[in-house]
């Protein structure tokens, strides 16, 4: 089995891109399945089901979804193998733009959209910078110039990645992406022992543990204060 | 090499530092490695930095840009050849070979969903009998360089369509400056001036450099997009998906693209546009059913249509100027 990890900001078009890409792979007689990771809720699994794609969803609830991903990816891989998949795609939203669930040796795809603004590539951390393939969506509604500027900004934060423009509505470009995802010589049996490409942030404070009250007295653990300068000025 | 030396040799490296939010201003006498070593462990974690990758990527980035600048000087794309494949039912396409040269306009007609997107994707991906249609694409009569597929700075096709908008919160001036910088243009001011002049000659209403791009009218936006694509875009092929017949001189717009040595493909059902092309591609059921050369009779029809068009445009501008219309 092959594993590909998709991630990207909410509403950037990940699900549409994955659906169109799997559609383009149909003729190759490959069994493709998806596991969708999200935080509070998702209905994307219904979209995959409708398309006849084996799908599971994992909601992290009160946990950070990327931490949840890292603790569950091995089980997910084993589900994929048991289901007889040739290719397993995981989809997760980068909620704080910092984390990324990419694993060394496993192909990572970041989906971002042209509408998110030209400063977005600068703001996204390892989720964009450590991806192997960057898919840029929603190019059909912005000008050619903005597409070029956006792509060049992506290129300057991640020059090694291959950048592709895909239209999630018409599927233009999805076939091309589909040719890059599956390697028939690759047989993945487990991800145990592999490493994340970038460490998750350290965050363990009283609020992580359920504290709701505001005030210095309730702040414990890894706490940092905002710098506002001299208040007397 | 110190950062100062890097910047002197490769001025474009500045955008790498800026986009990666590396404030090198007070550290130019250091090497990049020394600069990165100046960050504490905590800072590295806070900024989600990856030092090794930043080092490695700078080299990749500089090499890419060098190559990109080199390409500009080379002879570009002179012709595009499409070799036939099959339609959705597996029937061979109805042509043997189509070669389009720079400054040529070809129109594409066919109902929605007939396969226009696929044709365009085949061109963009420089298909080599490895897409669902089985078509092959040649550039300058030869097998295309892989860079057209994989490099983000060298895209073969630029697109202009009806639904496109400006979304950046910038003035016309800032916008063009940004685009010119990303294309590593040397004479930025001169280029901007040319674009503005060209855009204003296309649009019914002229616009100023300090107008926000999002505040332009439909016609002005289209004029600016076309002028910018003609003069600044890196892509040698331009696909136009209908140009609305409002607030813009479409004939002039096409001429501008032609003058800038673009290969123009135009998906349209508007006869005044479709007949300007020497040939038109008929798409049906996912394949090219046939290629028709525009006949002398059709050129005559075009002539008539253009007269009507001019008449309508005149009335439009009279209305705009607050005049009463007379026969």
Task: Describe, in plain words, how this protein is organized in 3D.
The complex is a heterodimer of chains A (233) and B (327). The longest helix of chain A is centred in the first third of the chain and has 18 residues. The mean pLDDT of chain A is 88. A seven-stranded parallel beta sheet of chain A has the order 3-2-4-1-5-6-7, sandwiched between helices. The termini of chain A are far apart. Chain A has seven helices and seven strands, in the order E-H-E-H-E-H-E-E-H-H-E-H-E-H. Chain A has one domain: P-loop containing nucleotide triphosphate hydrolases (Rossmann fold, 3-Layer(aba) Sandwich). The relative contact order of chain A is 0.18. By secondary structure, chain A is of the alpha/beta class. Chain B is of the alpha/beta class. Chain B has two domains: 71 residues, no CATH class; 216 residues, Rossmann fold. In chain B, 43% of the residues lie in helices and 14% in strands. The longest helix of chain B has 25 residues. At the A-B interface, helix 6, strand 7 and helix 7 of A face helix 2, helix 5, helix 6, strand 5 and helix 8 of B.
User: What portion of residues of chain A is helical?
Assistant: 25-40%
The name of the CATH architecture of the largest domain in chain B is: 3-Layer(aba) Sandwich
Largest sheet of chain A at a glance?
Answer: 7 strands, parallel
Beta-strand percent range of chain B: 5-15%
| DSSP summary, beta strand count of chain B | 9
Descriptors for this entry?
heterodimer, A: 233 residues, alpha/beta, Rossmann fold, seven-stranded parallel β-sheet, 7 helices, 29% helix, B: 327 residues, 2 domains, six-stranded mixed β-sheet, three-stranded antiparallel β-sheet, 13 helices, globular
Short description:
The complex is a heterodimer of chains A (233) and B (327). Chain A has 233 residues and is α/β, with parallel strands linked by helices. Chain A has helices at residues 14-25, 44-50, 65-82, 120-123, 126-129, 144-157, 174-181, and strands at 2-8, 32-38, 55-59, 87-93, 107-113, 133-137, 162-165.
């Amino acid at each position: 089995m092959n594993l590909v990890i998709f991630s990207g900001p909410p509403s950037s078009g990940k699900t549409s891109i994955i659906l169109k890409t799997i559609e383009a792979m149909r003729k190759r007689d490959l069994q493709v399945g998806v596991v969708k990771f999200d935080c509070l809720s998702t209905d994307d699994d219904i979209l995959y089901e409708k398309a006849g794609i084996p799908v599971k969803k994992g909601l992290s609830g009160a946990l950070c979804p990327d931490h949840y991903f890292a603790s569950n990816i091995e089980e997910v891989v084993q589900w994929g193998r048991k289901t007889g998949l040739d290719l397993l795609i995981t989809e997760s939203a980068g909620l704080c733009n910092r984390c990324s669930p990419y694993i060394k040796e496993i192909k990572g795809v970041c989906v971002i959209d042209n509408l998110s603004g030209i400063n977005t590539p600068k703001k996204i951390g390892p989720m964009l910078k450590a991806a192997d393939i960057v898919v840029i969506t929603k190019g059909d509604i912005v000008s050619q110039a903005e597409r070029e500027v956006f792509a060049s900004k992506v290129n300057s934060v991640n020059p090694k990645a291959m950048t592709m423009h895909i239209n999630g509505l018409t599927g233009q470009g999805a076939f091309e992406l589909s040719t890059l995802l599956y390697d028939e010589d690759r047989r993945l049996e487990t991800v145990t022992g592999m490493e994340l490409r970038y460490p998750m942030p350290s965050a363990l404070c009283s609020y992580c543990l359920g504290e709701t009250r505001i005030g210095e007295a309730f702040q414990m653990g890894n706490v940092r204060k905002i710098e506002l300068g001299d208040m007397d000025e | 090499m110190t950062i100062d030396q890097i910047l002197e040799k490769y001025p474009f490296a500045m955008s790498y530092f800026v986009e990666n939010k590396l404030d090198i201003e007070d550290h130019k006498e250091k090497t990049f490695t020394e600069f990165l070593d100046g960050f504490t462990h905590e800072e590295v974690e806070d900024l989600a930095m990856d030092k090794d990758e930043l080092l490695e990527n700078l080299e990749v980035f500089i090499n890419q840009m060098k190559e990109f600048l080199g390409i500009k000087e080379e002879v570009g794309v002179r012709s595009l050849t499409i070799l036939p494949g099959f339609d959705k039912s597996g029937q061979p396409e109805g042509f043997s070979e189509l070669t389009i040269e720079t400054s040529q306009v070809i129109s594409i007609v066919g109902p929605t969903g007939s396969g226009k997107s696929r044709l365009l994707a085949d061109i963009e991906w420089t298909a080599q009998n490895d897409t669902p249609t089985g078509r092959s694409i040649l550039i300058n009569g030869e097998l295309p360089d892989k860079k057209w597929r994989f490099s983000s700075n060298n895209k073969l096709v630029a697109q202009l369509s009806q639904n496109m908008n400006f979304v950046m919160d910038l003035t016309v001036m800032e916008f063009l400056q940004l685009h010119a910088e990303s294309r590593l243009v040397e004479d930025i001011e001169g280029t901007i001036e040319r674009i503005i002049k060209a855009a204003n000659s296309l649009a019914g209403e002229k616009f100023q450099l300090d107008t926000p791009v999002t505040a332009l009218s439909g016609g002005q936006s289209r004029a600016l997009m076309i002028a910018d694509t003609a003069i600044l875009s890196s892509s040698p092929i331009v696909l136009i998906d209908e140009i609305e017949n409002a607030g813009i001189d479409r004939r002039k717009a096409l001429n501008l693209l032609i003058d800038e040595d673009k290969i123009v493909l135009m998906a349209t059902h508007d006869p005044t546009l479709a007949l300007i092309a020497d040939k038109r591609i008929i798409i049906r059921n996912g394949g090219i059913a046939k290629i028709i050369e525009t006949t002398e009779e059709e050129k005559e029809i075009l002539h008539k249509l253009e007269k009507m068009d001019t008449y309508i445009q005149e009335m439009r501008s009279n209305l705009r100027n607050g005049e009463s219309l007379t026969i």
